[in-house]
Give the backbone structure.
Amino acid sequence: MMDSFNSFLYSTPEMSEVFSLEAQLRAMMQFEWALSCALEKHGLAATGSGEALASLLDVDFADADLLFIEARCSGNLAIPFVRQLTRAVEERSSDAARTVHLGATSQDALDTALVLQLHSAIQLLDAAIEKLECALESLVKRHASTLLTGRTWLQAGPPTTLGLKFAGTLAALRRHRLRLHASAERVLVLEFGGAVGTRAALGDAGDNVATEVARLLKLEEPEIPWHTQRDNVVEFVQVLALLTGTLAKFAKDVALLMQSEVGEVSEDRAEGRGGSSSMPQKHNPVACAAVLAVHATMPGLVTSMLAAMPQEHERGLGLWQAEWETVPEVCRRASAALAYAAEIAETLEVHKERMKDNFDSLLGLPMAEAVSMALASKLGKAKSHAMVRDATQRAEQTGTQLAEILKRTPEVTLHLTEAQIDSLLDPLRYLGSTQQFIHRVLGAVRVKD
């Protein structure tokens, strides 16, 4: 019950369905059907074998309880599944039953089933990225000029804009989408090598059978079976971990901006959302927390995949099995992080006046760099930096606006007029290439399938 309850945080209903037992069995059945069709086409199975298996694609014949019991004894799900499948085929065609799973090994069925599930998972992930991308584009456009205090080491720095902050997330998200597509090309491939990856049981027909299986399943055919070469699967997992890392950075920035003392943005304030069991005033960043929680688990999952790479000889002992829950879990968690991130982006409340008030409360100190740079051309960088630093310290100590301190400093007024000082301390004049950067991101060609 608890696992089911907590699934709200670590998956979406759609991704949970992709990696359900029923979906896995259907994917395994797809492989067995395609194999029987290919064997029949090349004269290695009786006529009608493919049709006999096609009638079982809904896997109604499978006894899940018995599968669990027998899988524990067999070491994997494919062995009892093929046994049950063979019995079901015998009821339709004894000839077809004789060649069920011919030339394949358990790992062929399980790996190819995983690939078919990943195909569905990647479609869901890509759609979720597209949704988040659209929401971020909207935020960037609306807040391209919304003044925001830049922060380095959690301390105030020169100004930026909220649009530029989100443009950085958008640019990274697009890179992850490209990585996902590139990884998909390598991971969505057939696994069919037989006992030790030679397809020896099929003689000279092995390559032709594999080609036909790949065609029927709409998968690419790899140059060689990959039973114990897991780099493509590991790469895919790493790509999703990189993706959630960017989503977590987005969520953390939003949560920091949402702190009571800052109050520059808020998550959706729908009734009952983000409340506290004890503090009536609280409005917690619950979606941000979910994204951060998901990503906190991803490095461990990636480490498990990396640790499982040195699989023994032609078929692994234990390390391959370690992937069975890890890969689906990574997909589930990435889908959840994307869903929560889209929720944040689509419903984010932006408090522009609070942003301005917060910046103004800093006495003009974040604009010190602008003054220092203006003086550097006259005094040299080191001297101007020291002079302006001294002015900022006096402003802080006395609670006086930096402009007033500078205007009362002869070493400064010798080189800058009061009007020049006011101009240098105007944050809207010190946004550098902000708009050019935003234009580049918004003008970039969006990733398409």
